[in-house]
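2024-03-11 09:14:02 INFO worker-7 job=invfold-0412 stage=load source=structure_tokens
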């Protein structure tokens, strides 16, 4: 019987880790608080040879290329609609850009044969001892696992239970971001990307959907000190957004009017996670839970790489009978990834100031980025930041992995906790 691993979170890092662990013969359970896979979301991208190598080894690169968006150009305007800055598709889209919901679905489908997915379920308590990690789920079930991994995002529940409260580890970076769907009333065509207004400290944009030309997506960013609000109270969040953009011109009043009917609102601070130790005992963190940055920190690519390294080091420790197996694996995983992840995070530190700078920063950004050589330099620096010499763990793959055919909650039905 293989090592039993519980992964909390079925976003990006969780299914990626499940795919690799399943191939290496581990018994994997993924608990996801949402009743089904989370769709929608902004486009995410992969840049450079390291990202593409991991995707290719996972067997998902061809799938992602088939559903790639082709990149999303961005046009910045003033309140009269005059263009201030145009960023080409390749600047924002990297080497492969896909919609976040599409990426999640691909990773789920590839990991599902190896994984017991439990939708509508989350961890409420953790207790470690020599026998494993004793877990209690929201539905009341209690189980013991050899290892637990928190892949549950910047506001990680597992991190809170294993390491302590969020405020110890998550730093507000001075801005908030929001996004929601609305009718494409501007008639933005496929491939036109997004158009957005910049005024000092605020950015309001709208772009076409890559799947449905009748649907558009609004994306707002605004500067603000840390705010106190209930993360589950969408009406309060809508009021915060409306207040932040009150009196702003261009298309903002119409975009705010659509917010009242939005059922898919995303709202969060632009923040960074800094966790001194990515593991404690038998519990580890991966992706945004360990080293996330809300926007601009190349978190999607980092999550894919981190899942590859964490699974590979666990497989190596088990295969080589290293003393303390998981302890040695967790240490090597963090040693390989911490510096890399921090380098990628630096983009997140600048994201709010790039999208919604102050008056001086706005003029400086537009002046510099209207010069093609500076754009080319920034794109190349982004690719350099994602480079990492990767170990090759493929020798640890079993013939068929810990295949669990028939296990997993179908996408077409709400995921009920499995007993």
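2024-03-11 09:14:09 INFO worker-7 stage=emit residues=419
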């Amino acid at each position: 019987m293989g090592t039993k691993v519980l992964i909390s979170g079925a976003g990006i890092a969780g299914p990626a880790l499940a795919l690799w662990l399943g191939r290496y013969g581990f018994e994997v359970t993924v608990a996801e608080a949402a009743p089904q896979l989370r769709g929608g979301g902004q486009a995410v991208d992969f840049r450079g040879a390291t990202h593409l190598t991991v995707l290719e080894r996972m067997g998902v690169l061809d799938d992602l290329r088939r559903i790639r968006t082709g990149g999303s150009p961005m046009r910045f305007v003033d309140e009269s609609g005059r263009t201030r800055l145009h960023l080409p598709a390749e600047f924002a889209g990297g080497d492969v850009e896909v919609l976040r919901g599409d990426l999640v679905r691909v990773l789920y489908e590839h990991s599902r044969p190896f994984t017991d997915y439990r939708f509508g379920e989350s961890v409420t308590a953790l207790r470690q001892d020599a026998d494993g990690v004793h877990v209690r789920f929201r539905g009341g079930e209690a189980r013991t696992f050899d290892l637990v991994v928190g892949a549950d995002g910047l506001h990680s529940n597992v991190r809170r239970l294993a390491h302590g409260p969020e405020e110890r580890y998550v730093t507000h970076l001075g801005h908030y971001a929001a996004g929601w769907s609305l009718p494409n009333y501007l008639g933005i065509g496929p491939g036109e990307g997004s158009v957005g207004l910049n005024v000092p400290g605020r950015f309001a944009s709208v772009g076409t959907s890559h799947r449905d030309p009748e649907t558009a997506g609004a994306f707002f960013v605004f500067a603000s000190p840390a705010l106190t609000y209930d993360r589950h109270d969408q009406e309060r969040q809508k009021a915060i957004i409306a207040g932040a953009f009150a009196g702003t011109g261009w298309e903002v009043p119409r975009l705010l009017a659509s917010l009242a009917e939005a059922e898919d609102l995303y709202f969060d601070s632009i923040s960074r996670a800094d966790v001194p130790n990515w593991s404690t005992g038998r519990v580890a963190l991966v992706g945004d839970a360990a080293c996330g940055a809300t926007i601009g920190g190349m978190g999607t690519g980092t999550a894919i790489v981190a899942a590859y390294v964490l699974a590979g080091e666990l497989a190596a420790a088990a295969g080589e009978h290293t003393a303390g197996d998981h302890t040695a694996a967790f240490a090597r995983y963090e040693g390989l990834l911490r510096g890399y992840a921090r380098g990628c995070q630096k983009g997140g530190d600048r994201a709010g100031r790039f999208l919604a700078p102050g008056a001086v920063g706005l003029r400086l950004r537009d002046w510099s980025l209207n010069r093609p050589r500076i754009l080319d330099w920034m794109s190349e620096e982004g690719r350099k930041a994602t480079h990492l010499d990767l170990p090759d763990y493929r020798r640890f793959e079993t013939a068929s992995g810990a295949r669990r055919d028939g296990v997993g909650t179908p996408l077409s039905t709400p995921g009920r906790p499995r007993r």
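2024-03-11 09:14:09 INFO worker-7 stage=report msg="The longest strand covers residues 170-183."
2024-03-11 09:14:10 INFO worker-7 job finished
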